[in-house]
Amino acid sequence: MSEPRHRLMDFVREEIMPHRFCSGCGCGTVLNAFTNAVEGIGLDSAKMVCVSGIGCSSWIPSPYFKSDTLHTTHGRPIAFATGVKVMRPDLTVVVIAGDGDVAGIGGNHLIHAARRNIDLSVFMVNNMIYGMTGGQVAPTTPAGVKTTTTPHRNVEPAFKVADLVVAAGASYVARWTTYHVFPLLESMQNAMSRKGFSFIEIMSQCPENYGRRIGLRTGIDFLRQFKEKAIRVDKARGMTEEELEDRIVIGKLCDVERPEYVTELQKVTAEQVDLLRAEKEKVD
Amino acid sequence: MKKRDVSTATDSKYRPARPFNREEFDRIRRILGGKVLFVQGDSAVSYGALLAGCRFFAGYPITPATETGEVLSQLLPRVGGVCIQMEDEIASVGAIIGASRAGTKAMTATSGPGFSLMQENIGYAAMTETPCVIVDVQRSGPSTGQPTEGAQGDIMQAKWGSHGDYELIALSPSTVQECLDLTIDAFNLSEKYSIPVILLTDGIIGHMREKVVLPEFDDVEIVWRKEPTRPKDEFQPFTDDGSQIPEVAIFGEGYHTYITGLTHSESGYPATDSQPDHHRLVKRLCDKIRNNRDKIIRVQRDYSDGGAGATGIVSYGVTSRSVNSAVKTLRQEGLKVDHLRIITNWPFPEKEVDELAGRVDRIIVPELNLGQVYHCVKEAAAGKAEIVPLWKTGGEMHVPRGIVELVKGRG
Lengths: 284, 411
Hints:
Largest interface: A-B, 48 and 54 residues
Distance between the termini of chain B: 72 Å
Oligomer: heterodimer
Largest sheet of chain B: 8 strands, mixed
Helix content of chain A: 25-40%
CATH superfamily of chain A: Thiamin diphosphate (ThDP)-binding fold, Pyr/PP domains
Order of helices and strands of chain A: HEEHEHHEHEHEHHEHHEH
CATH architecture of the largest domain in chain B: 3-Layer(aba) Sandwich
Strand content of chain B: 15-25%
Number of domains of chain B: 2
């Protein structure tokens, strides 16, 4: 009798399993939620392109997710994804990368893609640290934390990346954590189903290179903290900035219809092709 | 209302560049408006790109390269393509790599400062063997330098700009006509060898207006990449079938292609801790160009009948124009001068320079920098002839008289 096969294995590059994520890492949870989301809305992985950058969470789609996959240079996945989406709008293009990649070195690409409202789904896994390189301060590391490059303490405030993306003009923005798996899954489905620039900030854990510095030694410790610190966006609305200090605002931060970039480009092309034909008919 | 019968780039069934037939080529020629045109080099590059089948351009404004993007933003939508302006040059190369992997011939254009920013993703294109064309309209550097002036200071950067070992192809036009012709060649070479190809024009040719004759369909070859022939489940994106050039699977066609800038095995998967895999990969990246150098390299020889006392001149790009004039004057005065014009800067035509060095006593290398191709010529000549540099910076061309005086020993 053959071994029973998990229904989601069709979405995973089995030949390079097992994965390399550390014990307790949040990346496995995100991969799980993502494959479930893809299966749940019936996406054909042959019609998907996953684009990622450099860092642990970039390994979620590349190489583990089985679609066409573009594992790019550090910080640049959204720029590469733009080229793919513009020429193949029929494909579902998803960017999964970390906070250092998307909001640190690649922050400029993020805000411009959001401003254009290009039909991409960007899932930013925020572990609040540069984990792959061994625990250096990130733009998302809270102030006061000691890291290998802020050995005394971090004096910079943490970037609220999802809020930035709302302000830049995205269609859909949400923030969830690896504790809130089912809302995260549903949010991913919403992001991939709708048109326009969708962004989910996924607060995740790195027990190995972040947790050990802040006294959270295991993945469970993080999940417990995410559960305690999380506050729904509707509740957070009536609260002051001081009250929200040290809390994680979760939920849908924005969901609006805006003109989508590739659709608008298509219109220009159609107009120009028509114009050219009219000119030609005039000559003929 | 009449139904749209023209497919656009954004129609999922549309294959922007693959079925490139006579009808499509002639359509582009008609849009460009006539057989003989009077245009500047930057425009000629745009026209060459359209004729070569380029249907995607992503760029960032920079003098003296901006016009290429401006012209393509006018024309690409008319031919069913897309032209977009990105937030910077890093993103521009990223976008053209993405578009190329999605099945489109794609190009960007920039000048020195932008070319410096592009090096990161040019290395990525070399490592992942993604066809694309990068136009560098050279201006005086370093740094911001002289934005509106021409120069030839990026020759070494074109070859060595990104880190690690790789080979690419760089072409140097010296006329506006060649800006068009070599852009078509650049696309063909990038598709044939699956690499980024650099077109090294400069601020002088880029902004110079000259007569351009559009080629006929029968005059040019239009190359499309080698697509997979094996069944999808057997396909590996980096298998060497003996040609050293991998098949390129296009996104969205069910190959589940895995493309990474990490050291990868033939399957495409990371093999970062394997010395043999890394060596095999990088060696092949270099060998696929080095082993085909005879097919790739183009030079133009304008040689005298040789003999004792002959002087050789090696030139490329805009400087060849001054050399042509100087050679004419020198020959009228009865001097023996051999002119080797380099069209393919990279891979460097070492054999051709060596051959010239065997014919002449000394070789003069005029260029608009403080010594770049001079070093390549010196290495290739290996002591067979004396190598005399003629350097100039500041944005002005070499004056033919300066070259004449140097050859006559009064330089």
